[in-house]
């Protein structure tokens, strides 16, 4: 009898421990996800992918978008996440250099920080970085222009103008740098001509990656250099992403360009507007960055960190944020045109054909 009782007690003890253990791991830890804006399609996708995948891994998620790229709002949302008990923060910074103070607080509270897509500068609170290979994005874009204009075999010269993104976004150093690593030798040799003379990164920048600002700058370039289907020939426009390319497309269409004579125009993100433009001949290519893959990688990182493990990284050299190199995981970007979009975007379930109509 005594023996049976002690067996029952032992079983109860084990059961309690198991239940407590399970209860503890499902008393979900909270993760804060801070995205820069809801006004661009890609960040909505990133935000919802992250939330869905983190929840599926058993975490509670506080997902916030900082209005339309509002830095003070992003800072206060992060403050709330820290005081609200988040154990890890996944952040895509609006201004890569503006989070030092608030992340000091995160570090003091023992909250882990992962920089998402954009490196966060000047903060030793950042423990990991997950992104796409940003330099490769620029190289793919630059190489596309080189190949389309056949810069190595044609005589030229060819006219080009250059557009990149927000000056506070650390990624533009890599996008623009990667593209220039291909294009600069041709600019130096005179085969590519930038009539506006605006070749430096800060001259090519587009605040907030704004479609409207890109459109205005392209309209001004059209006026000042006389570009047009019947005017000075414009052979190519380098754009670091789709939101900027959309403004350039608007200006070029406004100046009378059609699919028949449209300049080579690059982009990035495979946003719906750009994919429709690509199919209609009003943009040449985009870069496909499968945000589902990035989110999956970051969820694995969060999970490893919060369980006391070591996240997988594949780059420990490239991304120094001013406090040292941040161990990074780089996903692979690929270029997308009207010739391969079906395999990349439709077959993979990223979009349906209907969305592109
Ligand atoms: C991202 C791009 C995006 C851009 C504008 C960059 O930091 O890497 O994918 O197009 O921000 O939102």
Description of the molecule:
- The strands form three sheets. The chain has a six-stranded parallel sheet with strand order 2-1-3-4-5-11, sandwiched between helices. A four-stranded parallel sheet has the order 7-6-8-9, with helices on both faces.
- α3 runs parallel beside α4, α5 packs parallel to α6 and α8 packs across α9.
- The chain folds into two domains: 141 residues, Rossmann fold; 156 residues, Response regulator (Rossmann fold).
- It is built from twelve helices and twelve strands.
- It has 357 residues and is of the alpha/beta class.
- About 4% of the residues have low confidence.
- Bound molecules: beta-D-glucopyranose (BGC).
- The site of beta-D-glucopyranose has 12 residues, from loops.
Number of separate strands? 12
Unreliable residue stretches: 11-26
Task: Give the distinct bound molecules.
Answer: beta-D-glucopyranose
User: Separation of termini?
Assistant: 76 Å
Give, in spatial order, the strands making up the sheet with the most strands. Answer: 2-1-3-4-5-11
**Strand percent estimate:** 5-15%
Oligomeric state, counting identical vs distinct chains: single chain
Query: What is the global morphology?
Result: elongated
How many structurally independent domains? Answer: 2
Total helical segments = 12
Largest pleated sheet? 6 strands, parallel
CATH class annotation of the largest domain: Alpha Beta
CATH architecture of the largest domain: 3-Layer(aba) Sandwich
Rounded mean pLDDT is 94
Q: Which superfamily, in CATH terms, is the homologous superfamily of the largest domain?
A: Response regulator
- Rg for CA atoms: 24 Å
The structural class is alpha/beta
Note the run of SSEs as H and E: HEHEHEHEEHEHEHHEHEHEHEEH
CATH fold-level label of the largest domain: Rossmann fold
